[in-house]
Amino acid sequence: MTIAIESPDQPDVIALIAELDAYQDSLYPPESRHILDLAALKQSNVLSAVARDSAGNAIGCGAIVLYPEFGELKRMYVSPRGRGQGVAKRLLALLESKAIGLGCKLLKLETGPYQHEALALYASAGYERRGPFGDYTNDPLSVFMQKRIIAA
Known about the structure:
Elements lengths: L1 E4 L5 H17 L10 H4 L4 E7 L5 E9 L4 E8 L8 H15 L4 E6 L4 H9 L3 E3 L12 E6 L4
Parallel strand pairs: 4-5
Antiparallel strand pairs: 1-2, 2-3, 3-4, 5-7, 6-7
């Protein structure tokens, strides 16, 4: 398995993001889904990471939008065919490391209460619950978390 910063504008990554969208569509109504589209993921202030299996197929993705005061973790997803191999943990570690290298000291995220695996991953990685941030509002279908990150 390899994990690297890559453009999200690749057919297999686009398919992976579509898989993520379909999964989230099954869990949450549109007004409770706060996604970035492909154009937003291609902006210069976005780090996009892709995990690939030994055959080179995209099996996981994630991104961080870098703002002046913090980074926001977005679009974290591991396809069912890639689960149980530590892919999400490695994606998260790479994104955090790259954000630190760019001077980011705080990461925030929004996820949903029905994504138990994601909540467990973030908690195990040191993320703590917090209130809404940025343009988010209180929503019973949103869970907000953050983590202070520092260079090791």
